[in-house]
Design goal:
It contains 6 helices and no strands. It is mostly helical. The chain has a single domain, classed as Four Helix Bundle (Hemerythrin (Met), subunit A) (Up-down Bundle). The longest helix is centred in the first third of the chain and has 24 residues. It is globular and about 40 Å long. The relative contact order is 0.17. The model has no long low-confidence stretch (mean pLDDT 92).
Length: 128
């Protein structure tokens, strides 16, 4: 695969994840909605790094990835990326998963679903 094909594939998967996050939000699967938003944002950051011909790294820390891009992030956006990174719950222990499930009530998820969508749109603008 060429670099361009890899970027296209990552962006396609990010778009699919973003749509899945939106659908999960609509049906009230709050914890999974936020987890999938994390994946979509992570993929978009990696696509941007590849577009900028920079090396991608595989840790899931969004702020670390974001700071390697040429995008200027505000302090608020950096704070958002740190919080969104905590949604990466795939390999966490069950007690952490339950804690996150309880944290992701409707009020919290409504706020962070909007923030995630805004961050995702910002990143998408740098790919197109």
């Amino acid at each position: 695969m060429t670099r361009e094909q890899i970027i296209e594939t990552i962006v396609f998967k990010a778009e699919s994840d973003a749509q899945t996050a939106r659908e999960l939000y609509k049906i009230g699967r709050n914890d999974w909605c936020l987890f999938i938003w994390h994946l979509a944002i992570e993929k978009m950051l990696k696509a941007i790094l590849l577009t900028e011909e920079k090396e991608i790294e595989y840790p899931h820390k969004l702020l670390s990835l974001a700071l390697k891009t040429s995008i200027s992030f505000s302090k608020s956006q950096e704070k958002y990326l740190r919080e969104i990174t905590t949604y990466n719950i795939e390999a966490r222990y069950d007690d952490y998963k339950l804690s996150f499930y309880n944290k992701a009530d409707n009020v919290y998820t409504q706020k962070w679903n909007t923030i995630c969508a805004d961050v995702y749109r910002l990143l998408k603008e740098h790919i197109i």
